[in-house]
Amino acid sequence: MTLYVVQHPEDDRPHAKVGNVYTQPHSVKAPAHVGQVFLPWSDLDVAVGAPEEELPGLWNAQANLQAPEGGSFVQVGTKFHTPRPLTAVAATLSTKVDVVLRADGKDYPLSGSDRPLLDPNQPNEDDNYWVAVEGHPKDIEVRVSFAGQTQVVSADGSVARGRTADGERAPTYEKVRAFKHVPCSTPRAVGSSPLQIGYPDELACLVTLVSRTPYVDGLGWAEPGREFLLVEVKMPFSISVHSADQPREHYWEKKHHTLSATLGGEPTAADPIHADALPLGITRNQGGNQFVFEVVRGKPAGEFRLTDKLRATLSDPFDPRTADLTIAWTVPARKLA
Prior knowledge:
Elements: E1 21-23, E2 34-39, E3 42-48, E4 72-83, E5 98-103, E6 106-109, E7 127-133, E8 140-146, E9 149-154, E10 159-160, H1 173-178, E11 182-183, E12 188-190, E13 195-197, E14 206-213, E15 215-216, E16 220-221, E17 226-234, E18 241-243, E19 251-263, E20 266-267, E21 273-274, E22 289-296, E23 304-314, E24 322-331
Antiparallel strand pairs: 1-7, 2-3, 3-4, 4-7, 5-6, 5-8, 8-9, 9-10, 11-14, 12-24, 13-18, 14-17, 15-16, 17-22, 18-19, 19-20, 19-23, 21-22, 23-24
């Protein structure tokens, strides 16, 4: 009788640390069940797989890590699609997105300061992530949170969206491009001033975009029953003013000016900003100054009133006088519908 002894080589690969996240973008097939979540700048497909004993290797080679002792790996796949313009009120986008894998009640963050998984300031890429977890969990979900709202994607692809379902009303690139420009009224001087407008008929402004959205980067979600309304205005290239009581050759040079606006008598929800100061992918049409208001959801807006407070200096090197002038344009509410 011959006895054969088979020796199994001991696995000397190091164990992954529980909570570590590994990116394997091109080596695996995404999980089968996919749920869609809303991000202010894109829709995102999210899928979570069943626990696995091994990380996928490259080119059929074995991965250089094994699962945590007594633990496993859980795959989370992400895929971006249907990008949308994000409305913002500052040059640096501030929307912070937290992504967490919850497995049998324990949370494993996929995002963090060292892993900006979903950051509107950086290019977004489709990816597969593998999370080292304790045990072999049965109750698994992915939680995507921003601005106080959490969307939950279950392993079967179902999604609890909460208030983020309002995101379906966010603008699309097609709607932005299709907007038909609206001219402002002829400007008029407001209040008393030693100056008056030169050639007012040539100082036309143009509303290049009106857009409604439930979410604005830098402001968050509008209050329940309300939404944000963005008005983008292209201003005259230059404004000519002259002394009201002197011949027109006494021209003044505009030194600086301050723009403000109201909608139905209400001020903006944030300081105005020029579209050129915003990053790519932001809601814009042909560029211009942007004003954001909070309005009643689905209701017509009031009259838009644009005010330019300017300070001018007499174009005479021997006369340092300065003077102020306030100019206003209006757009009827019906034209903003």
